[in-house]
Amino acid sequence: MNLFPSLKEKYTKEQLSARDAQRLAEFIAFGPIVFQTSRLMIKFGIFQLLRDNDEGLTRQEISEKTGLSDYAVKVLTDSSLTIGSILIDTETEKFTLSKVGWFLLNDPATRVNIDFNNDVNYNGWFHLEEALLEGKPAGLKEFGEWPTVYEGLSKLPKDVQKSWFAFDHFYSDGSFNQALEIVFKNRPKNLIDVGGNTGRWAMRCVNYDKDVNVTIMDLPQQLELMREATKGEEGADRINGYGLNLLDNNASFPTDKEYDAIWMSQFLDCFSLEEIVNILKRASKIMTPNTRLYIMETFWDRQKYEPAAFCLTQISLYFTAIANGNSKMYHSEDMIKAVNEAGLEVETIHDYLGQGHSIMICKTK
Ligand SMILES: C[S@@+](CC[C@H](N)C(=O)[O-])C[C@H]1O[C@@H](n2cnc3c(N)ncnc32)[C@H](O)[C@@H]1O
To answer: Whose CA is nearest to atom 11 of ligand 1?
Structure first.
């Protein structure tokens, strides 16, 4: 297995002393409560209070400022102290924010991941075992009876939907500036955005290039959300919707004109490798030697920073338990193999975009 150097050292050699390893094992054993305590330290505003008070706050002061009982503050601060998100001055008994607490409070990726795990995944994790054994997103029944989360997306409870979109947009939005430069180097006139969702990338494209036309392929219910989201926006008249379910093998790519670019951002991770090959084969049918297919994904093996690889391999289990039961955040070797099996080849790979995306540029063989 190939791994970028940033990951190789960590994943091929034991890193921890026995004492640290035991602590981490206990940290995992108490993972759910470590998570909930930390989430509530944010929600109740305790981390923020500590950030705003450099000299720190006593338990009583936290209790007065939050309105929480002394008991509630005591259990939360005891727990947070041993988690490592706050520190105590034993002389003054004042708590301050540690570096971990600072990241929990201020790191946008961490915040989005916390909300995603709490609102979208938490109850679903109880069905992970079933999902792994059956190859079905067994946790999705917490919200409704759909075959995949994508079919239910427009009907999810509002807070769940909000965290899902915040999570999805956070990752892809951060890469769009660099991605636009890469894709528009070839000045595409007609671009297909496969899995275009609420039209954020399509809007960026029509604003970036006044001549480009974008066709969004997505499930019909998502196209409704897209039309709502782009209504009245400048350039929205150059965005068309093409509704279909790509899990239906008869669903084909549009042939109304020649497309110079096919864009798939955070899309192929919604499918198993077998399905990916199948979809790419259908895409290849409308590709000419001049067409380029751009696959933007967060490949866990191509990360500059190790925590990103950690997040991505954990996010894979969301696909297992909630999204569809059979997809994941892929290793780039798996994707290259699927591209080749579909009769295409990878021309170039751009790494380190935004939160850790890569873009594979593919062409016909
Ligand atoms: C994870 S979102 C990615 C959205 C966007 N491209 C981005 O980068 O943020 C995946 C998109 O693929 C669409 N999708 C999933 N399964 C699909 C299917 N079977 N047929 C068509 N579109 C599908 C979803 O509706 C969703 O809009």
So the answer is: 195
